[in-house]
């Protein structure tokens, strides 16, 4: 996501002016588990005060008085999550962490914020016609979808309540408009809240204004993600005429709620743990059905990760939590949000491409990307030059090459298309600098380190970003002739692109670095060039001078793929209200597709086959998820057993729940009833156990079909499962054996499919032989 220079400068100045007096003091979260009355939905004022006072007493025993504790604590989590956020020094943290009632103490860290075509690509529409499965799920009617993000732009048509009936009585939340009296909720956008104490505890000071003390979205990210999950049908949505169509969310008749847990965007991250945890605690209490979380950070132990903690408590209450996988790909072991109780979503393309063409004077045409609404005269060619060749007198070749501010000579650049190299400064900033020097257009060429990954931006002049290989062709052409020329076409919408989906290079990959026995990511969904609602508080570049406003905008990232799955979870909640969060995840995973629209295995760049560490179970297929046949279910007890296997003792486990629980023995992480199988250390042979529940038809008999990972054999016993009724459960064993000496020491992949001839229940298998 972009962070404008003006916002970054503002944050830097604010931080410098408001640095705490004692540098060793930092903000921390003290996590105490669950409350003893965790099953209650509403918290009385008396109970609220009792819990707060208990936090003051606990912290006061370390700080010397309850008065000092009250000054230190800026959040008390009083509803379902038990704990508090406070400003402490390292010595105090060390002492508090040793208290028997404390599960963990962790730094209040920042986390980063990680359409008109996507739903047709996923099969819920065909040629603009609604498909029966979407109608059967009643478009997610009255499911309550919450979004932890940058807030919401309530005036967007995506959140209009026209045609909506009364708010569901189970909703317990409010519309907290804070310092912004213009912010209004309605029967569609039924609630909104904001949490910023953790943000200011980290960056310093407080600011009272409608920008900060309001759930209004001034960044665009929150409106985009929330409308993707549950936005209305809005005909005629586009960005500067691109991708024109009917915008809608996965559950367009759902009710939506915005929890603003992020401050102004910076490259370091703007969504702090203390605020995220407060958002989760409130969402659980308010009575939501789905929580969508398009943000994350570096993987941490679960007891030190606000998203893992918050989602654990949400899932305990039957709430589905969907999270983005992160944008740190294509490197392996980069996936974030890896807890087994949440759904982790990677990003891939759809069969629509928003393209801009660079036509060279030698009749070569190169396809690139841009959202610029600026146009060159039709088919008029202009001189094309490298940025280094039009550098200012005092500028270095390097700075000029990257089109740094003040490094281009206005006399030399005027009237020309300038080729800038990607890197060093912002992509949009390069175009601003080129335009300031009088350039009529810009070509943004990838460096060798950028490869073939290109992105679109709303440039301030005609512009196109091109791949590294195409950039090399442009430089070669410029150097081959005395008068090189080029023309940048207006952006256009191309449909029916093959192959699709293709994994986005930025999408974070597995394996899971916290518990490699849990296969992550779980699923992939459209996350490239997604059109959805946007904030009208700023222009599409995020720059103060950009006076353009657009109610819908195009964004890319796992932030965009996550709410697609959140919207599908809303459909499944409406269609199957008795299904657990684990059952919904299982249905989404086991029904996924691993082949693209060219009927080939999903690829990473169009020709290199991707692995399940990129796409998880595959690309989401919502119609099939509504009738998966079998599901792999999990209960709260299963997750507590999982915690036991990580080394939590029964005393600590008791803090997570008000139920008596005894850790079973022996414990094997690979036997958690997950819809996929991951074995990170195979030594000869291993047997894994799974249990499936029949939710399809009855009677039914399923047969196991196996694709062996290279160098391994997979034996399933029994090979058939007979179900007499709906709800029947059957267990089976999967024995994985190395078939030859010196088996591959890298991960290898296979698949287990249970089929009754109608349903195909697929589970990915990932195995790494140990030394």
UniProtKB/TrEMBL annotation:
<keyword id="KW-0732">Signal</keyword>
<comment type="similarity">
    <text>Belongs to the peptidase S8 family.</text>
</comment>
<dbReference type="Pfam" id="PF05922">
    <property type="entry name" value="Inhibitor_I9"/>
</dbReference>
<dbReference type="InterPro" id="IPR037045">
    <property type="entry name" value="S8pro/Inhibitor_I9_sf"/>
</dbReference>
<keyword id="KW-0325">Glycoprotein</keyword>
<feature type="active site" description="Charge relay system">
    <location>
        <position position="221"/>
    </location>
</feature>
<feature type="domain" description="Inhibitor I9">
    <location>
        <begin position="27"/>
        <end position="114"/>
    </location>
</feature>
<feature type="domain" description="Subtilisin-like protease fibronectin type-III">
    <location>
        <begin position="671"/>
        <end position="767"/>
    </location>
</feature>
<protein>
    <submittedName>
        <fullName>Subtilisin-like protease SBT5.3</fullName>
    </submittedName>
</protein>
<keyword id="KW-0378">Hydrolase</keyword>
<keyword id="KW-0645">Protease</keyword>
<feature type="signal peptide">
    <location>
        <begin position="1"/>
        <end position="23"/>
    </location>
</feature>
<dbReference type="InterPro" id="IPR000209">
    <property type="entry name" value="Peptidase_S8/S53_dom"/>
</dbReference>
<keyword id="KW-0720">Serine protease</keyword>
<dbReference type="InterPro" id="IPR003137">
    <property type="entry name" value="PA_domain"/>
</dbReference>
<dbReference type="InterPro" id="IPR034197">
    <property type="entry name" value="Peptidases_S8_3"/>
</dbReference>
<dbReference type="InterPro" id="IPR023828">
    <property type="entry name" value="Peptidase_S8_Ser-AS"/>
</dbReference>
<dbReference type="Pfam" id="PF02225">
    <property type="entry name" value="PA"/>
</dbReference>
<dbReference type="InterPro" id="IPR046450">
    <property type="entry name" value="PA_dom_sf"/>
</dbReference>
<dbReference type="InterPro" id="IPR010259">
    <property type="entry name" value="S8pro/Inhibitor_I9"/>
</dbReference>
<feature type="domain" description="Peptidase S8/S53">
    <location>
        <begin position="141"/>
        <end position="618"/>
    </location>
</feature>
<feature type="active site" description="Charge relay system">
    <location>
        <position position="149"/>
    </location>
</feature>
<dbReference type="Pfam" id="PF17766">
    <property type="entry name" value="fn3_6"/>
</dbReference>
<feature type="active site" description="Charge relay system">
    <location>
        <position position="559"/>
    </location>
</feature>
<dbReference type="InterPro" id="IPR045051">
    <property type="entry name" value="SBT"/>
</dbReference>
<feature type="domain" description="PA">
    <location>
        <begin position="391"/>
        <end position="473"/>
    </location>
</feature>
<dbReference type="InterPro" id="IPR041469">
    <property type="entry name" value="Subtilisin-like_FN3"/>
</dbReference>
<dbReference type="InterPro" id="IPR036852">
    <property type="entry name" value="Peptidase_S8/S53_dom_sf"/>
</dbReference>
<dbReference type="Pfam" id="PF00082">
    <property type="entry name" value="Peptidase_S8"/>
</dbReference>
<dbReference type="InterPro" id="IPR015500">
    <property type="entry name" value="Peptidase_S8_subtilisin-rel"/>
</dbReference>
């Amino acid at each position: 996501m972009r962070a404008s220079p003006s916002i970054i400068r503002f944050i830097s100045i604010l931080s410098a002016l408001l640095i705490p007096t004692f540098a060793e003091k930092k903000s921390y979260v003290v996590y105490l588990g669950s409350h003893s009355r965790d099953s209650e939905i509403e918290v009385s004022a008396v109970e609220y005060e009792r819990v707060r006072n208990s936090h003051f007493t606990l912290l006061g025993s370390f700080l010397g008085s309850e008065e000092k504790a009250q000054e230190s604590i800026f959040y008390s989590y009083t509803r379902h999550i038990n704990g508090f956020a406070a400003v402490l020094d390292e010595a105090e943290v060390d002492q508090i962490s040793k208290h028997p009632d404390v599960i963990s103490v962790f730094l209040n860290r920042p986390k980063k914020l990680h359409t008109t075509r996507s739903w047709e690509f996923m099969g819920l529409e065909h040629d603009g016609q609604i498909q029966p499965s979407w109608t059967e799920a009643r478009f997610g009617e009255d499911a309550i979808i919450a979004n932890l993000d940058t807030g919401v732009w309530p005036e967007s048509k995506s959140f209009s309540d026209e045609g909506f009936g009364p708010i569901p009585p189970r909703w317990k939340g409010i519309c907290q408009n804070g310092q912004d009296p213009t912010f209004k909720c309605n029967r569609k956008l039924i609630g909104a809240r904001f949490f910023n104490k953790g943000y200011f505890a980290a960056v310093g000071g407080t600011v009272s204004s409608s920008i900060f003390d309001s759930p209004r979205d001034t960044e665009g990210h929150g409106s985009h993600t929330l409308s993707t999950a549950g936005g209305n049908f809005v005909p005629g949505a586009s960005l500067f005429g691109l991708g024109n169509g009917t915008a809608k969310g996965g559950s367009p008749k759902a009710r939506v709620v915005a929890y603003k847990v992020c401050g102004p965007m910076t490259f370091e991250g703007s969504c702090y743990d203390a605020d995220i945890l407060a958002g989760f605690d409130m969402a659980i209490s308010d009575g939501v059905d789905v929580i969508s979380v398009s943000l994350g950070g570096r993987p941490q132990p679960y007891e030190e990760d606000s998203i893992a903690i918050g989602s654990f408590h949400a899932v305990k209450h039957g709430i589905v939590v969907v999270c983005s996988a992160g944008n740190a790909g294509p490197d392996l072991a980069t996936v974030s949000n890896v807890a087994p109780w949440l759904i982790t979503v990677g990003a891939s393309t759809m069969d629509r491409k928003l393209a801009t063409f660079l036509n060279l004077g030698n009749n070569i045409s190169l396809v690139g990307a841009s959202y610029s609404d600026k146009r060159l005269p039709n088919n008029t060619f202009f001189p094309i030059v490298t940025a280094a060749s039009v550098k200012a007198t005092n500028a270095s070749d390097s700075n000029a090459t990257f089109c740094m501010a003040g490094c281009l000579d206005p006399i030399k650049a005027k009237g020309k298309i300038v080729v800038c190299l990607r890197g060093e400064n912002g992509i949009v900033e390069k175009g601003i600098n080129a335009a300031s020097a009088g350039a009529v257009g810009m070509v943004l060429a990838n460096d060798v380190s950028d490869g073939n990954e290109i992105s679109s931006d709303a440039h301030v002049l005609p512009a196109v970003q091109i791949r590294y290989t195409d950039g090399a062709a442009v430089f070669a052409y410029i150097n081959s002739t005395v008068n090189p020329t080029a023309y940048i076409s207006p952006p256009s919408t191309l449909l029916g692109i093959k192959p699709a989906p293709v994994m986005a290079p930025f999408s974070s990959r597995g394996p899971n670095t916290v518990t490699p026995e849990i296969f992550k990511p779980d699923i992939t969904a459209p996350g490239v060039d997604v059109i959805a609602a946007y904030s009208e508080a700023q222009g599409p570049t995020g720059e103060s001078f950009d006076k353009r406003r657009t109610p819908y905008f195009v964004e890319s990232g796992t932030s965009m793929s996550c709410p697609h799955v959140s919207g599908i979870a809303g459909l499944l909640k409406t269609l199957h209200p008795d299904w657990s969060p684990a059952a919904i995840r299982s249905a989404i995973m086991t029904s996924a597709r691993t082949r693209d629209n060219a009927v080939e295995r999903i690829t990473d760049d169009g020709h290199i086959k991707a692995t399940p560490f990129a796409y998880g179970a595959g690309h989401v297929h919502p119609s099939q998820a509504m009738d998966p046949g079998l599901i792999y279910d999990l209960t709260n007890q299963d997750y507590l057993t999982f915690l036991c296997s990580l080394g939590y003792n029964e005393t600590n486990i008791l803090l997570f729940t008000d139920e008596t629980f005894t850790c079973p023995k022996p414990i094997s992480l690979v036997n958690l009833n997950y819809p996929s199988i991951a074995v990170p250390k195979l030594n000869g042979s291993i047997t894994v156990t799974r249990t499936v529940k029949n939710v399809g038809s009855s009677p039914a008999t399923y047969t196991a079909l196996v694709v062996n990972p290279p160098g391994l054999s997979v034996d399933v016993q029994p090979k058939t499962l007979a179900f007499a009724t709906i709800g029947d459960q059957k267990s089976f064993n999967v024995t994985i054996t190395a078939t030859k000496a010196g088996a591959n020491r890298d991960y290898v992949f296979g698949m287990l499919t249970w089929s009754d001839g109608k349903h195909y229940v697929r589970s990915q298998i990932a195995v790494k032989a140990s030394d």
